[in-house]
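Figure S7 source data.
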Amino acid sequence: MGSVRISNLIKTFGDFTALNDINLDIEEGEFFALLGPSGCGKTTTMRCIAGFEDPTSGSIYIGDREVENIPANKRNCGMVFQSYALFPHMNVFDNVAYSLDIKQLNSSNPIKQMGIYARLLNKRFGKHPKETIEKVMKILKYVELDNHAERMTSELSGGQQQRVALARALVMEPAVLLMDEPLSNLDQALRHSMRNTIRTIQQDLGITAIFVTHDQEEAMSMADRIAVMDKGNIVQIGTPTDLYSNPASPFIANFVGTSNILKGTVLGEENGLTIVKGEGFLIKSANKTTKKEVDAIIRPEHVKVEAADSVIDETKTNVIEGTVVMSTYLGSVVRYDVQVGGYQLIVDTTYTSGVSIFKEGRKVKLTVEHGRVLLI
Ligand code: ATP
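Tokens for the predicted adenosine-5'-triphosphate complex:
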């Protein structure tokens, strides 16, 4: 029962409202990301779910249990933090087994407890129960650390330490796995491989996961759905493709991927296309709008760059004249910065070997299909 439902959650710190009426419905088995800039309330939301923070008002359900009066350690949530929060004086196995030991300790009779205390104090004189060993080794195998079970965690790389933290959360078989920026301390290459590791394990176990990040690429590549947060509010919820192709505001368009945002005034409609005029451009969009002042959103990869003397049928596509300010070769892609009126547009074109790159100062024509201009 790992669904999470949050209704009208408000959290204030003194006069400051950190969360302003948050509503979320996260399905069992879903990988859900909370994405937003620093200070928007992601961690506070997570801490309210985990039970580390008391909501000012509103309700939180994990499965069909209202968790308001349930302490953090009884909510059946596993947590993974940015700082791995491992015990440096314990080896990998003991770090992962620790919570199981504590659970057993809490549920044992007093005589049995004395034995477990002794084992916890000095593992050399005791053994973990067979069930614990099996559980821990199974989960260590999952995170590919079964060969490192006896290593001290201080001897591990950052990625390995984060996998121990993940194993420690998973071994408790939580209903919900909460991860707060777990990859932020890792270098680029490790981040990529850990994204895959976490996603694969989450899918294998069918566990509900809530993942906090300010990195849109991380959220897009891992999550089934994303809630974008801004200043204590949820501003849009959707799948990565929903958010990318239909951002609800310029803020989201810019936060989820790179966007060109051109401010303009709607002049009218012609042949089913909305005509927008802005500073130094006239553009037509297949989008309908009732607004007069709009933001025209154009993704860099939806623009093509042609030579200034190219003959292009302007009834079929937008044609915008501009001047290349900078061209950057990025391997498979060439990124152009092109001055168009008062805007510098970003254009990403696929690099084909042998095709020449337009240099700085070249006059060019940019083409954008009408259906690729989103009006917000
Ligand atoms: P980051 O990505 O930087 O971690 P975040 O989106 O997770 O940011 P939160 O940590 O949830 O943001 O904080 C939201 C707001 O609430 C911030 O302005 C923060 O300063 C404030 N805040 C969080 N905890 C407290 C607290 N205990 N007392 C006062 N203000 C707090």
